[in-house]
Amino acid sequence: MIDVKGVHKNFGDLEVLKGIDLEVQAGAVTVILGPSGSGKSTLLRSINHLEKVDRGLIRIDGELIGYRRRGDKLHELRERDILRQRSQVGFVFQNFNLFGHLTALQNVVEAPVSAQRRKRSEVEPFARELLERVGVGEKADAYPRQLSGGQQQRVAIARALALKPKVLLFDEPTSALDPELVGEVLDVIKELARDGSTMVVVTHEIGFAREIADTVVFIDGGRIVESGPPREVLDNPVHERTRAFISKVL
Ligand code: ADP
Ligand code: MG
Q: Which InterPro entries does this entry report, sorted A to Z (predicted)?
């Protein structure tokens, strides 16, 4: 479902991604671990063409992201087509990124209405269903500032689901939460994983990774150092850097 091949990304002189290859099968969960600054967010953002890569290709469900081929040249897609592709990817950020002037329900309804030109009245029942599903159905009319961090993040997850995306990307979805609110958000993500969503989750929650990941990928310095099933990467890492990192976050 997701295919990342030979991806390089520079910010000026800084090479942040140094040749990343990553495949995620349909229905599979990949957890990305790695130290701060190792390129995890840049990789997720590249999958969604929020960052333009300097080299390499990204495909989602077989479709080249951000570009189209003409002869042997690649041309960047028009904004409209980029937005259409982006609507196939649900993105959940560390800091929720909800619209503060919209209620929970309006936050969820917004994308299908503006990106897919669906009717508000038609989207609303589905949006309410999604809020129920993430356990904040009774908060539909609340504004983000009236919600706890855990509730806001669950609204953000409902919003990401509203476009019925092919894949879900989570960038440290619980890092900004008070410790007692982490569990309720992880539970929602676990349930989505059980239901067969294809997802990539950047997190430092090792226990959670062990529970839901089909594949754990450890990134350091813009390279994949090690990847494999949780039992290998988390419990029996081959590389010293992986071992050192895991012992630090446990
Ligand atoms: P991580 O998510 O693993 O903490 P990031 O992908 O956010 O790492 O960042 C990787 C490196 O790229 C860091 O050194 C960061 O400072 C740098 N970086 C990220 N975004 C930008 C940007 N827009 N401009 C310049 N440097 C950036
Ligand atoms: Mg990051």
A: AAA+_ATPase, ABC_ATPase_HisP-typ, ABC_transporter-like_ATP-bd, ABC_transporter-like_CS, MetN_ABC_transporter-like, P-loop_NTPase
At 176 the pLDDT is 95
- The boundaries of the domain holding residue 150 are 98-165
Residue at 156 is within a domain: yes
Nearest C-alpha to atom 7 of ligand 1 is from which residue? 41
How many domains is the chain partitioned into structurally? Answer: 1
Q: Report the 10 Å Cβ neighbour count for 107.
A: 26
Assess if residue 202 is contained within a domain: no
Q: Is 20 helix (H, G, I), strand (E, B) or coil?
A: strand
Residue percentage of the chain with pLDDT more than 90: 94
**pLDDT mean across residues, the chain:** 96
Beta strand 73-76 pairing with 223-228: unpaired
- Is 15 inside a domain boundary? no
Residue 188 CA to its chain's centroid (Å): 14
Asked if pLDDT for residue 169 goes beyond 90, the answer is yes
